[in-house]
Design brief:
The complex is a heterodimer of chains A (about 475) and B (about 150). Chain A has about 475 residues and is mainly α. Helix content of chain A is about 65%, strand content about 5%. Classes of the chains: A mainly alpha (about 475), B mainly alpha (about 150).
Chain lengths: ~475, ~150
């Protein structure tokens, strides 16, 4: 047994060596920010700690005398399992290279994230999935690499380190990247511990939960009829520990996931304004069923209802600064109304678990989520005032094929840089209301050349973001 | 590519298994030397908290209130169900966990406990570590969503 274990350790060391070689290769690549290299360093050091601990186990005679052979094997195997975990972390670096990301957008996005999450390190990367996602690295790495042996490893970990992934195939479609607002929202939700405040506000229907337990127990007890009973006795319910465990875990996890997703949507609106709502509809409607919920996400229709709650103007409990509905262009207003109508339609029956959870997300809970998120923004949300101040000037620039990276104040005789959020909101307004005018300026008819015109619009916006970033950096250097 | 939800479950599984291994070693050291060093005491304190959460998780459906704590309790309950000794039935699950809690507490407070009970405590954490190892392996290899396994 000892010989087998010793060989297992030797083989694991070979995996460590291969991993360190791959890290060396990835270190040679060029990244738009320092964040991918921070993660590479973490993986490198983690790999070294695992390798040295495997060596220690091999030589630790006291350990061989203290643990049974099964326990010792388990300990070695556990250390070995850190290796595929570290390899999985490498996946977060793939796609973050300069050539795989819209590099012009990465720095402004990083600046935007740091505005809300001080001292954060974010890896932006493209991946093959048609999705956006968020991975909270600091939280996970602290959980896995806990204890004395990993202490030095965690010391170098940024206070808030995360990965935001976006679809490679849409890499240059900047209008869609407003979806990143939702991913930043996950970070804010966690940083502000909003789960501790919001989750206890959700109430579960106990009788519905017991009813599901009854049906499952009945099925498991091979046809024994318990469904007619009003309430299961303690013994009957206790008979099926597995049912209890499954329901307890599912309900708690699904509620936790859904509340966080909804709060992240509310943060998306607060950070990007209506641009996030438009990007959500554009992206999600093409690839998801509007009324289909999952273990991790509430249905897009619930999510749209929450966003609309923030954007519409007749909500007394909603912040006035976010009531964008009243100032939209007519075409934009029609577009929004049409989608809100679709979202509010009754859908087919859900899986019973999701049905319980969906019923627990009442309009009052939606209000609570919105108000706590607005509170969490500390007055730094993208407001209607900012939108009104910039939008028509920026839209005019876009319509005339001029990158909307700065605005001229003729009275004050000065120019100001446009921020990335204003540029994208103006981009959406043009996309929804003025594409005919936009396309006329390069002498094509929009309805016949939609793809080409959309591409041109996105290129113009990306150029504006790049120029605005250059100006901002220049101003920073001048002021240093 | 891993889904974020599965990577989160993998993180939880690897961390829990690592914790279980450490508790097994702490108990084994105690059985050998009759002493607990400060870091072993901290691990036993964590073990006591874990068993308290298991019982809370077990009772949650009687009064289903949600909180961050209820989510942690649900996870602990689920882990303990997987790690329980095969002869523990649904009926005596809570007594079994309560016994484990008492033993861990006694070991921590009085630096002694019944030898058989200490062995059962060690067996539980050994099973816990084993079941998490299997779960980690499944999460690394299997595309099925872990929650439905």
């Amino acid at each position: 047994m000892e010989e087998v274990l010793s060989q297992t350790i030797d083989y694991a060391r070979e995996r460590c060596h291969a991993l360190s070689k791959e890290i060396e290769n990835l270190e040679q690549k060029i990244y738009p920010t320092a964040s991918p290299k921070t993660l590479l360093l973490f993986i490198k050091e983690g790999n070294e700690i695992i390798r040295s601990n495997l060596d220690k186990i091999k030589k630790d005679t006291e350990l061989y005398e203290t643990l049974t052979s099964e326990e010792l094997e388990q300990k070695v195997k556990r250390f070995c399992k850190f290796l595929p975990y570290l390899c999985n972390l490498l996946e977060y670096i793939e796609g973050s290279e300069v050539q795989n990301t819209p590099a012009a957008l990465i720095r402004p996005l990083k600046r935007l994230v740091r505005h809300y999450l001080l001292n954060s390190e974010i890896i932006f990367r493209s991946y093959s999935q048609l999705n956006y996602s968020f991975a909270p690295l600091t939280e996970r790495l602290r959980k896995v690499f806990s204890g004395e042996i990993f202490k030095s490893l965690l010391e170098g970990l940024p206070e808030f380190f995360a990965v935001v992934s976006f679809p490679k195939v849409e890499s240059n479609y900047v209008l869609l990247h407003c979806m990143v607002g939702h991913e930043i929202g996950h970070g804010l939700y966690q940083e502000k511990n909003l789960g501790e405040v919001l989750i206890p506000l959700v109430t579960i229907d106990k009788s519905a939960l017991d009813q599901i337990a009854k049906v499952i127990i009945e099925t498991e007890s091979q046809g024994q009829d318990v469904s007619g009973k009003q309430q299961l006795s303690e013994t009957e319910l206790g008979e099926s520990l597995r049912v209890k465990e499954l329901l307890t875990k599912l309900i708690n996890k699904v509620i936790g996931n859904w509340v966080e997703e909804l709060a992240a949507d509310a943060f998306g609106i607060c950070i990007f304004g209506p641009a996030y709502f438009f990007a959500f509809i554009n992206f999600v409607s093409a690839i998801q069923l509007l009324r289909s919920s999952s273990y991790t996400h509430p249905s897009p229709s619930i999510r749209m209802k929450l966003m609309w709650h923030l954007l519409k103007s007749d909500q007394k409990d909603s912040a006035d600064s976010l009531s964008f509905e009243r100032i939209f262009e007519d075409k934009t207003k029609d577009f929004v109304q049409q989608w809100v109508k679709v979202a509010s339609k009754e859908g087919p029956p859900l899986h019973p678990i999701y049905d319980i959870v969906e019923k627990s997300i009442t309009p009052i809970i939606i209000c609570h989520i919105c108000s706590k998120v607005i509170e969490g923004m500390n007055g730094s949300e993208y407001t209607i005032q900012k939108y009104q101040k910039n939008i028509s000037t920026l839209c005019d620039l876009i319509k005339n094929l001029i990158p909307p990276n700065e605005m001229v104040d003729f009275k004050q005789k000065k120019t100001t840089s446009s921020d990335v959020v204003s540029i994208l909101n103006a981009g959406w307004e043009v996309y929804l209301s003025f594409m005919d005018e936009f396309s006329k300026n390069f002498e094509v008819v929009y309805k016949d050349n939609k793809i080409e015109c959309d591409k041109k619009l996105n290129e113009l916006l990306l150029k504006a973001i790049e120029l605005s970033e250059i100006k901002t950096r220049w101003d920073e250097i001048k002021n240093d | 590519m891993f889904s974020e939800s599965r990577f989160s479950d993998l993180t939880e599984s690897l961390a829990s298994g690592f914790f279980a291994d450490k508790v097994v070693l702490a108990i084994a050291r105690f059985q050998k030397s009759r002493t607990l060093n400060p870091s072993d005491e901290l691990l036993l304190e964590e073990a006591v908290q874990f068993f308290k959460k298991v019982i809370e998780g077990h009772d949650w459906m009687d009064n289903p209130r949600l909180s961050k704590n209820s989510m942690e309790s649900a996870t602990a309950f689920s882990q303990a169900v997987r790690a329980r000794s095969p002869h523990v039935s649904s009926k005596n699950f809570v007594d079994y966990i309560q016994d484990l809690l008492n033993t861990a507490n006694q070991l921590l407070q009085q630096k002694t406990a019944d030898q058989n009970k200490i062995a059962i405590l060690r067996e539980f954490f050994s099973n816990y570590g084993r079941s998490e190892l299997v779960r980690t392996e499944n999460l690394l290899q299997d595309d099925r969503l872990e929650i439905f396994q």
